[in-house]
Amino acid sequence: MNKTQLDFNLTVSRLIGEIQQLGTMITLCTEMIVEVEFRPHVKWTTVRIYKDDESFKKKIDGVESGFIYVSTEEKYFNDTPEKQQFTIKRLMKIKRQLINILKEKQINYGKLDYTIKTVEYKQYVI
Questions:
Q1: What pTM was computed for the model?
Q2: Considering only CA atoms, which of 27, 26, 23, 51 is closest in space to residue 37?
Q3: Closest C-alpha to 72, from 55, 58, 89, 60
Q4: What residue spans of the chain are helical by DSSP H?
Q5: Measured CA distances, 104 to 20, 49, 98, 126 (Å)
Q6: Contact between 19 and 36 (Cβ < 8 Å)
Q7: Bigger pLDDT: 13 vs 118
Q8: Which of 5, 17, 36, 103 suits 24 as a labelling partner, its CA being 20 to 30 A distant?
Q9: CA-to-CA distance for 52 and 34, rounded, in angstroms?
């Protein structure tokens, strides 16, 4: 893998992680529901933002159109620099939409640090 491809992969993986974390905050702190799916084996992600729980439930019942606040599906093309830039711009646009929702709801997202902590669990058998 060349350096350009590695840089692209690292950028995309970071953006997807940030999108997932922002989506979780929106779902936990507002009435909205964010659904983020990532299928790495086909380099595809789907982000859907529902205005409330009722809209989300209607989606589950198969009445999806007209109830989604935002929906995007992105296939990551990475065979040319132009397609890589398009993918990065698209992911940044999704991230910006999620940040704007948090700002509108006056939720402080600034403390997100995107770090991963390793937690060790010990099991004691008595």
A1: 0.76
A2: 23
A3: 89
A4: 3-29, 53-60, 81-104
A5: 19, 15, 10, 51
A6: yes
A7: 13
A8: 5
A9: 10
